[in-house]
Amino acid sequence: MADFSHLVTSKVNIGLVQELACNELLNILDKCEGTKVLMWDESLTGPTSLIAKPSLLKERNVVKMFPIKPGDLPNVEVRNFIFITRPNLQLMNAIASNIHSEERKSKVYSKNFHLYFMPAKSLLCEDQLKLKGVLGSFQVIDNFKCQLFPFDSDVVSMEYCDAYKELYIEGDLTCLHQSAAALCTLQKLYGKIPKIVGKGRFAEKVKELVKTMTFNENVGGNDKGSIDQLIILDRSIDILSALATQLTYEGLIDEFYGINNTTVSFPAEKFASPSEDINFSRVATSSEKKQIMLNSREELYVELRDKNFNAVGRVLSRLAKFITSAANERHGEKTIQELKKIVETLPKFKANETSFSTHTTIATLIKDHISQYEFLDELSCEQHFMMCVDLDKSNDYIENMIYKQKPIEKVLRLICMQSAAGNGLKQKVLDSYKKEIIHSYGMDSLLKLGKLEKSGLIRIQSGSRSYNILRKTLNLTVEDFEDFQEVTPKDISYVHSFYAPLSIRIIEHSMKPLGWSGLNDILSCIPEPSFEDYQMTNISSSGRRDSLVSEISQSDIPKVILVFFIGGCTFAEISALRFLSQQEENNVEFVIVTTKIINKNTFISSIINQ
Amino acid sequence: MSLLYNIGDWFTLGHGNTYRKIELYQLEFPENINLEHMNVFAAPYGGPIAITKNMKQLTKTGSSSKPIIYIFTCSGHLLSSINWNSGALLTLGWSDSEDLLCIQEDGVVLIYNIFGQYQHKFSMGQEAADTKVIDAKIFATYQATGVAVMTTHFRIFIVNNYKDPKVRLLPEIPKSSLDPASWAVIMEDRRTTCLITREQEIFKVKQDENICTAMGISLDFDYKTIRFISVSFNNRHVAMCTNTGILWMGSSDLRTKYCEFNTGRTEMPKQMEWCIDADDPLKAEALVMSYPSILLIVGINGDSNIYTYDPAVFLIPEMDGVRVLTNGYHELVQKVPKCVSNIFGISISEPSSFLFESHRKFSERSHQSDEYLCLIFDKIDVAVSECIEAASFEFDTETQKSLMRAAQFGKGFIKGHNPDEYIQVCRNLRVLNALREKDIGIPLTYYQLRHLTPTVVLDRLVFRKHYGLAIQIAKHLNLSESRILLHWAYHKIMFEKNDLEIIQKFVQKFKDPTSLGISFCAIAKKAEEVGKTDLAIQLLELEPNCSLQVPLLLKLNENKKALLAATQSGDTNLIYMVLMHLKVSTPLSKFQMIIRDFPLAQNLYKKYCQLNNVKALKDIYMQEDDFLAQAEMSLEEALDSYIKLDSSLIEISNNFKKGHKDVEAELSEDHRKLMKQQKVLEEKYARAFYGLSLHDTIRELLVLGDVKLAEKIKNDIKMSDKHFWYLRIEVLGSNYQWDELEKFSKSKKSPIGFEPFVEVCLKGRQLTEAKKYINKCRDDRKIIWYNRAGLYEESAKLAFELRDIDSLRNIHNAASTTNNRELITKIENFIAAMSGKK
Questions:
Q1: Which residues on B lie below 8 Å from A173 (Cβ)?
Q2: Three-class SS of residue A335?
Q3: SS3 of A472, please?
Q4: What is the pLDDT of residues B33-42, one digit of tens each?
Q5: Beta carbon pairs, A and B, within 8 Å
Q6: Which CATH superfamily groups domain B32-154?
Q7: Between chains, do B635 and A405 touch, taking CB under 8 Å as contact?
Q8: Which Pfam family name is an example for this entry (chain A) (predicted)?
Q9: Of B576, B730, B752, the CB nearest to A124
Q10: What is the pTM of this model?
């Protein structure tokens, strides 16, 4: 957690995003003199660790940090309490109760309160504070302008939790405006993006907003920046990939253990010291969780993260052999020089070995999970849907799950997948599912179903079966599937073993000579607008066309494409994009920006839960 | 080398101190204005000049007619006039932003702009009003313009910034039967200080200090009273004149005396102003004194020069000289800058002088040019930059040109000459010359331009409505034009009558407002301020940035337009702003009607209501006939307690029905029936049933063994057979009732096949039982279940029979963990056999 060097590796330096946010935060701290306590909106504590080192906060007299909770403020002797929060009315009530209790406690009013909204002030919240009579108690009410959190050298997240729900159920488009603002921030950092393409009505709206904002604020001047193209996609155009079980290493870790802001917790007892002669100090403590940070700073993780899980074992066993042979070598007789060399490589060797043992443990944990019959049955059920098998009748497996009262999220996920694959469910099928669910889980599940219907994740069949059409035209399910493709993949479909996420297939196709316009026909079966737009006229001709040489050398520089997902994207999709950029024929680098990283579990629960 | 060039008006005060008089303009005042009977109040930096009848003469004649104040430019062009109709006028003065401050005897200060338009007024306090003011001074502080007044009781009140008038009283001077003879304001340590003379005494009073310091000066000559005191423009030097006509010149702290001078005149000078050296403002050089028909210039070394003038002479101090105004002429007296005298001075042999001469000879095609050049070849860079510098001090364009040409000629001989200075001076000279034109009449010097900064000068031009010139200058100096355009727009809004024309003009001028830095919103705000509401609305529509429109539209009460702009901007915070405003300003029904047309706004309002006002949300749903939402809302509310749920299920069911959600309606109705039954069950079994789902209710009954009742409820509430079967199997299994299970399996054809049977058996670890059911499964499923049961041998056999080599391989993998060598070999044989056949 100490440094952010891993953000800087690619052509578009994501470190700038971190610096920008960090400076914003430090500005806030510098503005307030004396000792201070930071009161965080709990949902922000994780993301904030991605932008500022704890030591930096300490240097600035931050004594402690607490989550915002209703009731008394923590008893700390400091002058200043700085609240940093998303504009959320419930939290406003909590903050108001904090201040009320503080006012009751001390007659002499000695503490200073500061309130910062991230990313921007909200009138509604200020109104709420006024209503509670505490608006005047704050010395400062201002913005903490931080829209983006750097996850890795190619991944940035807005950590906007309920984007899909807000957009599709509540009809609240706040997230589009913030997305556009975030894209403008990126343009301020990396220069104007000349070309914008995308699919989906919200994507189109974001594009319009980005264009007006760029124009109004005169962002980036007239020079093209380091990003060549922006692709904006609505999550709704490819629901199936959001719901599908990810079969990449990183995706599986996320689905079973939940990666939050690049950090994941495992049961600590599994991580007992693997070989005692190497590291005595690592004794598994009785505390329940072991936190591990997963990002590209760890070499081995970079190699593993995007692999299909079936390939992970091979990498690990290869490494095991290497480590053993290296360790054996050490025991053999050596000259002083040779020994010296070994000693020099020792720290790196040790780091590798720790990393190796960690990932072996994680892989074992995952393996246990995925060998469960339940997992396999569920997987085979969803794979049937992906192959468009028996979409028009009630699925026995789903029904059995209902009868067994399995967690309703799992049931609903599979129903949503059936609906997505079949462009909706037959009325009869849906009605029967509804009935069985209500009978099994009770009346409150009716509300959950209602939300899914409103969001379009479950609907009555209508129109052409676009998924089945696209499955054939875009080759989404690879027919002659062989095991080795998981290990040495030739196609992005490896991320779900044989299914290629539509979202990424679209991006892959847009890089072909016909480009985005060539895709329009294919995508016409999805009834959402598709667009191709330019923020700068005629880049190619206004660019340097003086000599042939410069053209050639320019084409050697990889194109940078910014992919923006409205409503979240999965680790498998990220892996698929990384896979694409590694293919030699695609001279391209991707930067992925998403409202939030999602998986099948978090996506469904964010929609059906309050 | 001596050159007679443009030095006709040069004069010296002692060795090396050369001064010059530069004629700025020839003036022709209107006939009714004769400066002899007038008072002149001029603003520094070539600002406007206010002229009015001499107030003292006025009171003498006792005329009751109110005075007229005329405002002229420096070139004598009448800008405006004010028919004074307020109280008794004492004195006038100009502020740093060119506002005219008019001070009345009652201590009221009225402020006008250069067009004679009244701005506002303030008072110097009740005490000043009560005791009457006898004299007033307007002075420049470091950041603003202040006013000091002296009352008939000789108390001094000051205001340090007329824009933010806070009246302060200065300390009192010691009482005496004699009246003070003169006073002056001076800035000391950033604080306003007054020097007051009485007889031979000098008192210093300072703001925020409660003491009055008595000071004195020593004079060789005899005198009775110090009658006149004057402070230099930069507050560093002080001059005093006694009743005997003796002049004392010294530093402002009165500690250093530069010189004592006998004017030989007992009449008091009308004005006395320091002429500051532009090259070195710390050094005092000369004092300019005006008497009727006479101008006396005294150097600090005691040399003096007398000029005869018109009867009326007025002095206007500047930061680098003194302007002299008479009926016919407007002149500038200044010390000749070093660079200028180095070129044009008499008997001068400076490099720049030679360069100038060389160029002159060159243009005369004379070979002497080269000779001059040879003399200075090693110092040519100094010569060039001195020529450039000198040009910047000249007012005569021909002289400017010849100096610049000399510089241009000279720089040809310098390798790698940096032309920045040359360009800068050229640019600035163009600006200065344009400003000095008679039509504009702002005779700035190069120093003054630099001190004011071009931006301020542009503002002054704009204020005088010289928009064209301002734009030209802004373009020429690469400054932002947006302020000028904005002012122009403001002006149009305020004075043009036809709204349509205004808009057309704006559209024409501001084709690309963003790149010009123009905001239509700002212009609209101005229109709103002057009450042109319609124009403001039309202008707002031109604003491309929706988010800027919203607050002003709300202010204009254009609620619908505001809502539209807010929704277009996509900024939900703005939409909330409009919603909040609408909610308090319009009746609820109208509010709801308005937001109906804006789905996004309505959605946001609904969301807001969900948290703050559920009743209002219900109203909306009712109004919109959104039955589904109503149903879901009541359901959500009812989920808190079973009793509530029970009672509202009819309504919920009805609403679902109206919302065309038949299944939901039916299910709600069924659930109501179920709850009815549950009440009965609770009584019968004394157990909690109320609120359970159908599944749980039936399961509970099955566990209790009441299969009949369970079946009845199943039929009443229409649970599917499959579901019921599953429940029965599951309960039998978990009760370890394997025989009953088997009996049940044979009771009817199973609607869910036999796999659930296998599953419960395996769960209960009953392999033998499980086998019975596996046999009844479909062949391909059999392999799976054998595997899951760990019966690899059976599954391998079956797979072999079915020629399913993939399954065999899987079985082999799974079986390898068992360590059962025999079994493994068997499977391997199967595989070998099949591969062999292939």
A1: 570, 572, 600
A2: coil
A3: helix
A4: 888 888 899 9
A5: 118
A6: YVTN repeat-like/Quinoprotein amine dehydrogenase (2.130.10.10)
A7: no
A8: Sec1
A9: B576
A10: 0.73
